Structure formats: structure tokens, C-alpha cells
Amino acid sequence: MNPTYDFSGQVAFVTGAGSGMGLATARAFAASGAAVALADVDEAALAQAAGELTGEGRQFLTLTCDVTDEEQVAAAVDRTVATFGRLDMAYNNAGIQVPPTDAAEEGADQFDRVQAINLRGIWACMKHELRHMRARGSGAIVNCSSLGGLVGIPGRASYHASKHGVIGLTGSAALEYAPRGIRINAVCPGTIDTPMVSDMIAKGELDRAEAEAGQPINRLGTADEIAQAVLWLCSPGAAFVIGVALPVDGGYVAR
């Protein structure tokens, strides 16, 4: 049984919210009483999510946003605040994975694309979220890193570089903003059963049995399990938790 939270009167901003961990987290925030802004580059996915949340009677806003474009990020955050009057919580989740690539063969265009979405995108989101939160002197931000931010895996150099970068970004910003009443942390998911992972399995870029065996719990995680970790990090229950990179990985990095 999951814990329950009361985020009534608060506002959450979630990127990559059209599917997977982002959508699960947006739903969980909404179910806990928060007004939620769902940002994603995929308009069709946002429309589907909107239909679901409308049916549940939730208070929400959908925003088409490419996190590689800082102007779009700033506009999305500003519109969230203009619509709901404040910003209390953010889950910077948008990210991509790429096929395994020999480190000596990977092109600069692929490397740059991964960094632009996975690292610079989180930098831009956090930057503009902090502009609003620091004015209120409160807030909680969770950045999505990965078990790939804590370890290395052959063939994943550019992806792991981006996710290690998220942890460094999180820790430094957390120390800067803790005295100002804003808590910043990162969540590090293991292999989670999401549409992105399903697509990787279908393309032969990931072996499901091998991924399950690599996590001591012997299964893939669920998007809802990541959502619960994010909500906890944003809740008063984590009031003394600052600058952590929390593994939610079925025990992968504990081996």
C-alpha cells in the first residue's frame, strides 16, 4: 500500500509527462490534490493524458515543450505560474536513451542530442523553476538521473555522462538553494517498465530477461514506483533530505 500525501493548494510541474514515469508522477500529484502542469514535446501523448485526467476531474494544464529550447522551458514554467498562481514542486523527468554504441564510434551529433535533452534540459528547467521558487522562499525539485548516473555500463557512455551530470548539477544547486528554503534532489531509476523501455526491448537494444536478472528484485520496476519516490522527496516527510541521488532500482547499485 502506497503512502498518501495531501498536496491540496500546491502546484507541480512535470516534464516528459506524456507517458511513462512522467505521466505516472503527474497522475500521483493530481491524485494527491495538487494542480499539475504536464509538459512534453509529444502533443499526441499530452492529449491522451489530458483525456485521462479530465475524466478523473483533476486540475491540470498541458504544455507542449521541447526542453532543449530554453525559451520554451521558460514559457512553460511562466505559464504554469500565471495559470495556477505559484509553483511548489517540480519533477524534471524528460529524457531519452539511445542504442548501445561503441565509445570509439559514437557520433558527436548523437552525443550532443543526449546531453541537450538529458542534461541541459534539466538545467534549463531547474533554472526557471528556481526563479519562481526563490521569490517564495520554498519549493522542492526532483531531477531524474538514473542508475546510469551512479555506475558505468559498456556501450552507454553518452547516456551515462548525461546522467552523471544530472547528479552533479543537483548536488551543487541543492547546496546553493538549501539556505533559501528550496530542496533539490535526484531520483535514480533502474530499468523501469515504460514505453521507452518496451521500445528498446522490441528493437533488440535491451534484453528483458537480462535486465530483470540484473536487478536483485528479479523484475522491472514500475512507473508508479518511481512516482511514489518523487512524491516522497517533495513531501514534508523528506524535509531534511537535500542533495541526494536516490536509487530506486530494485537493488542494482547495492550489489
**Assigned CATH class:** Alpha Beta
Unreliable stretches: none
Assign a percent range to the helix content: 40-55%
- SSE string, helix = H, strand = E? EHEHEHEHEHEHHHE
Query: Nearest-angstrom radius of gyration?
Result: 17 Å
Shape: globular
Strand order, sheet with most strands: 3-2-1-4-5-6-7
Number of helices: 8
Describe the structure in your own words.
There is one protein chain. Strand 2, helix 2 and strand 3 form a beta-alpha-beta unit. Strands 3-2-1-4-5-6-7 form a 7-stranded parallel beta sheet, with helices on both faces. The chain is globular, with a radius of gyration of 17 Å. By secondary structure, the chain is an alpha/beta fold. It has helices spanning 20-31, 43-55, 70-84, 108-136, 157-177, 195-202, 208-214, 223-234; strands spanning 11-15, 35-40, 60-64, 89-92, 139-144, 182-189, 245-248. The protein has one domain (11-248): NAD(P)-binding Rossmann-like Domain (Rossmann fold, 3-Layer(aba) Sandwich), CATH 3.40.50.720. The protein is built from 8 helices and 7 strands. Belongs to the short-chain dehydrogenases/reductases (SDR) family. Its EC number is 1.1.1.47. Keywords: Oxidoreductase.
